[in-house]
Amino acid sequence: MNLEQTSMTPISTLQIRPLLERYGLRATRQRLGLAKLLFSKGDRHVTADVLATEAHGARIFASLATVYNVLNLFAEVGLVRSFTVEGGKTVFDTNTTEHCHFYFEDSGEIQDIVGGKFAGQFAPPEGYEIAKVDVVVRLQRKQDARA
After folding, report:
1. Which terminal residue of the chain has fewer beta carbons within 10 Å of its beta carbon, N or C?
2. Is 61 in the same domain as 115?
């Protein structure tokens, strides 16, 4: 359950523990370190591999499996959003507001689509409600008309 919808501004080390506790999470050493890396740069899109590399560089000792587990837990409680792109790669987004994404196929870059809200455009079947909408618009460079 998402306790609040947020667009994350960079937060300080002192704010990490209260943030985790607000989402009902125990502030373990790995969670604190990974959350510090994840949220200290504002809104961003990361994979577990990228965060694991950043953790290693920051001398935060957490296995890749631990990084995956922490990110999945953060997504489960609504601290981050997760969505899938190219080949099943899971991306974790610190901006939990309802929004969509551009995926640049040539670079692998992901960018938020401002104002891309679609939930109100769908009517769910009887007995169901929309939990969230994940839209990823895949982009490729235009082919030169003279080629």
Report:
1. C
2. no
* Number of domains forming the structure of the chain: 2
Kindly state whether residue 27 falls inside one of the protein's structural domains.
yes
Q: Are residues 53 and 30 in the same domain?
A: yes
Closest among 117, 114, 146 to 133, alpha carbons compared:
117
Within 10 angstroms of residue 84's Cβ, the number of other Cβ atoms is 11
What's the length of the chain? 147
Measured distance CA(61)–CA(56) in Å, rounded: 6
Tell me the pLDDT tens digit for each residue of 103-135.
888 888 999 887 756 656 778 789 988 777 777
Do 105 and 72 have their domain in common? Answer: no
**Domain check: are 132 and 105 in the same one?**
yes
Q: Are residues 31 and 75 in the same domain?
A: yes
> Per residue in 2-57, pLDDT tens?
334 455 567 777 889 999 999 999 999 999 999 999 999 889 999 999 999 999 99
CB 30 within 8 A of CB 66: yes
- For the chain, helix, strand, coil in percent to 5 are 35, 15, 50
